[in-house]
Amino acid sequence: MDELNLSIDGRAVKGGKGSTILDICRANDVYVPTLCNIDGLSGSGGCRLCLVDVEGQKRPVPACMTPAAEGMKVVTNTKQLAAYRRMALELLLSERNHFCFFCEKSGDCELQSLCYEFGIDHMSFPAMFPPLALDASAEALAIDNNRCILCGRCVRVCSEIVGNNTLDFTKRGSNTVINEPDLFPLGESNCVQCGACAEVCPTGAIFGKLSSYKGRKAQCKVLRTSCCECPMGCDLTVYVRDNNVVLIAGGGLKGRFGGQLCKVGRFDLLARNHERIAGPRILKGKSQTQTDLPSALEAASNLLRTIQRKHGKDGVAGIISPRCTNEAIKAFKDFVEKALQTKNVFIWEPEIGVLSEGIARALDKEGLGRFSDCKTSDLLDADLIVAIGLGAAEPHPIIASNIRRALNRGAHFVSVGGAENALSARASLVISSTKGTLAPAVQTLINVTNALAKGDQIAIDNAMGRSSGIRPADLAAFVSLVRGAKKVVTIAGGGIDPDPALVRSVALLAATLGKAEGGSVRVIFLGSGGNIRGALGVLGPTARSMPTDLRKLGIRAAYALLSDEEPAAVDAATLGGLDAIIVQASFESDLSGKADVVIPSPTWAARSGSMTDIDGTVRQVSPVLAAPEGVVSDEEAIRGLERSLGGPEPRKRKGGMA
Amino acid sequence: MNKVKIATAWLSGCSGCHMSFLNIDEALVDLAGKVEFVRSPIVDSKEFKPCDVAIVEGTVSDTDNLETLKSLRANCKILVALGDCAVFGGMTSFRNLFDPEDVLRRGYVETETTKDGAVPTDLHVPRLLEQATPLSAHVQVDYSIPGCPPHPESILHVVTSLLEGKDPRLPRELLHFDSRIKVRSDAK
Asked: CB B88 to CB A117 under 8 A?
């Protein structure tokens, strides 16, 4: 029998076996106050606010930790229980320095709100006033143990959801504080500053520095969008006040990957204060002058026409940032291909992300396996994760957290030819190659895995080591890890040379590993541009990333839609040597200062449309802020440019007359 | 009918609670017809005459505060703690995180704008207590109005309830720590 029948406050209710009393109360809309418990994390039974009476029990029991049983009679709300709850709250208040009047969380604080609920207008216990430290050493967030109630939500979220185990209880009794276990300041610890702890903290003990004192949640509009900073496309819950972003939260503990965000999504978006491109500009002589949008678009179309007349249709190119929405990318592609009549569309993105899609599709066609079936969630229950060519900062924080969670569960991690990073430090095996390229190493791994799949005898000798550049002992360790694996996921990072043959062999290795474990092909290609999957989808398998030298391809002018690319990544040298450059971007950069025409573009916060995440799921992108005056959507600017250019029709008429 | 006698006192606090009391605005006129303020920070009297209600702002931080509070308690029927300092310790109890001597040195000697300062040693200057504490650490408190400052409506609720013989404890909508937060109507 999987269902339990019990009574809560005299009402007959049902619940699943294995549920706690609290689970069943929540499922039946019976309110039980909680502080340490939060839906989505394990229970800990520390705060005693959820005490309930169970018939036959001498003392009240914590609902969050007590398994529900058949026939149980539960009472959640008596005068005595309320008195216990009040006492628990007063003890919490008296134990630390809960000074609401200067606390950033006042108004959004769960402890405060419960005190109001239970009518706590004073403390029956003397206040302890313990002098406790504030750790503000981390860039984005701070821990103030003065406001901590030791509920442990942060400790549990850091372990259960983020898999990083940075935070823990240190010291004992009433001296207990939340800290890195070795007492490293947060800024010097292994903390990834994802801010999951700040999101679950019921009081003001852990908070994002940039969200502090900007307003209460109740004073904000709550809007939802998808993060376009990397292909994970995490759900953002954005709190907005007076057209300013006050706070960014995730999609909730029960959301995708526990509603995690990384430092970029939660904090850096708030910190970003690059100079905005305020309005359209045209280069006149040696300096740029401000103008209106129609004039800028006209100047842009004149430039493109002139270059095309002189150097042919393929004398111009369109370059688009993979941060743009699917809709903007589609409009851009149509514009370049139909209005400018050239196939020169390039993605502003390093090679690997672009190459991988085409190669994976090709291998799909060759019947080597369904490469698109792998989801990032496959990492969570993988028992062997093979990462090839991981860069120092890779993989994306949420993928890294999925890997850590798998490792915490006992999975093995193999890093092949990658840089040293926090993950490689936890690897069961780090394979490095003495060769200049990874190709022989990857080929050898394919060979041994193939032999394993066929059940052949594998003889690892020094010759094999010499040809692959891998130490024979490492090869033997790899074989034994693959032999024991039931679910392998391969990750291809940005550290791989942009050599199609190498990328292909990485994909083949994934296919071979899949065969060896008797499952399907699981490979995740890490791309850096937020909507890289969308861009590849819209532009098709022949999509190309930015070549290093456009001039070599006969290109003399470029229309670059860079959206809110970081200015540091947009240096003028990238497009150096061209006769004309049209930049459509959110932020001023080296390039925008030199461009012939500058058109403003909305940032992530004002975009509208959709993006496609790393798993191929289309996610909605909604504006959370109004764009500054005069900044139109990317699609609107593209359409304006198309109109200004006269569209394809007038060109055809001209052709007809000739 | 005899007017109800009220005494108010300002111990270690910022006077913000008294300001908030004055912010009951026109209700003061009604109140003036019903009560007599036998003592307040603007009534210059060294002694405490017996009164019905004493309303006290601030923490007990020095020997003078303590003497005032004890004398008030001895002379009033009902004692009300006004504001976060009087109720919980509030702003003035920040100093409890430091040694009192360090606090005095910081205030009288090390302040950036002080030159040749010295901690007063005159016997007539009240001495700092080890900690700044809420009223309840020293005397029995009958009712509490937390808030920094308490909202005028919360103060008025307690005063009028006492005058009318009703339960003066704050209902949920008037109970708040910190200052009451206004929620904008266009949010959501």
From this structure: no
Which of A100, A110, A121 should be substituted to probe chain B, the one whose Cβ sees the most B Cβ atoms within 10 Å?
Answer: A121
- The whole-number pLDDT of residue A354 equals 57
Looking at the DSSP bridge assignments, the partners of residue B78 are B53
What pLDDT does A353 receive?
Answer: 58
DSSP letter at A417 equals: S
**Closest residue by Cα to residue A50 from A252, A38, A254:** A38
Q: Tell me which of B177, B184, B186 to substitute to probe the interface with A (most A C-beta atoms closer than 10 Å).
A: B177
User: Among A247-256, A500-509, B85-94, B177-186, which is the least confidently predicted range?
Assistant: B177-186
Residues of B near A (Cβ–Cβ under 8 Å) read: 81, 84, 87-91, 93-94, 96-98, 131, 133-134, 136-137, 141, 143-146, 148, 169-170, 172, 175-179, 181-184, 186-188
Tell me if chain B has a CB within 8 Å of the CB of A408: no
pLDDT tens-digit map of A593-645: 999 999 999 999 999 999 999 888 999 999 999 999 999 999 999 999 999 99
Tokens standing for B1? 């009918």
- In chain B, residues with a C-beta closer than 8 Å to the C-beta of A100 are 84, 148, 177-178
Q: If you average pLDDT over residues A461-481, what whole number do you get? A: 90
Return the closest-CA partner of residue A352 out of A244, A473, A492: A492
Q: Is A284 exposed, middle or buried (0-12, 13-18, 19+ CB in 10 A)?
A: exposed
CB-based contact, A97 to chain B, within 8 Å: yes
Residue A566 has pLDDT above 70, yes or no: yes
A213–chain B Cβ distance below 8 A for any pair: no
| B161 contact partners, CB below 8 Å, separation of at least 6 | B167, B168
Interface of A with B in 116-135 (CB under 8 A): 116-117, 119, 121-123, 126-127, 129, 131
Interval A222-232: pLDDT, tens? 999 999 999 89
Q: Which residue of A has its CA nearest to B81?
A: A122
Contacts 24+ apart (CB under 8 A), A645-650: A645/A301, A645/A304, A645/A305, A645/A339, A645/A340, A646/A301, A647/A338, A647/A339, A648/A338, A648/A339, A648/A341
Instruction: Specify the pLDDT at position B187.
Output: 47
